[in-house]
Structures are given as C-alpha cells and as structure tokens.
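Handout, page 2. Input:
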Amino acid sequence: MVMLDLVVLVLVLLLLLLVVLVFLMLLLVLIVKIFHLFVLLVVLIPMIMEPIEFFIILLDYLILAKNFVAFRLSLVIRLWLTIWKTHMSRLIQLYLLL
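Output:
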C-alpha cells in the first residue's frame, strides 16, 4: 500500500512538473513574441519618419527667409529625430547580436 502511494505521488509530481514546464514555455513564447513586436515597431517607425524628416528639411528652407524662430524650432525637431533614430538603430544592433 505504501509503495502504491509512493508511485502515485511520484506520478502526480511528474505531472505537476510537466504542467509547470509547459506554462513556462508558453510564457517564454509570449515574451519573445512581445519582444519581436517591439523590434518590428523599432524597424518600422524610422521608415515612417524618413518622409517626415524630408518635409521638415523642406520646411526649413521655406521658412528660413521669413521666420527665424520657426527655423530654430524645426532644427530642434530634426535634432530630436536624429538622436531618436540613432538610439533605435543601436537597439536593433543589440537585438541582432542576441
């Protein structure tokens, strides 16, 4: 009787271990999917920002003769976009190293 109880206990523990492992694998898959979605956004957003940057540069040359304050504001926006894109490209490089 004790031997049977011990076998049942071991089987139940193995089953519990299997359930925990499956749960951890599903959790790992979810984390990887979220990370891939983040990387996809990091790759797509700079591609979307390129035309916006072009129009900001065009706006610089149109406004230069009329309003110096707006020209400085567009320079600040362009500087922010450049820094942001550099930071995102470093994240992409880090992801590719993994």
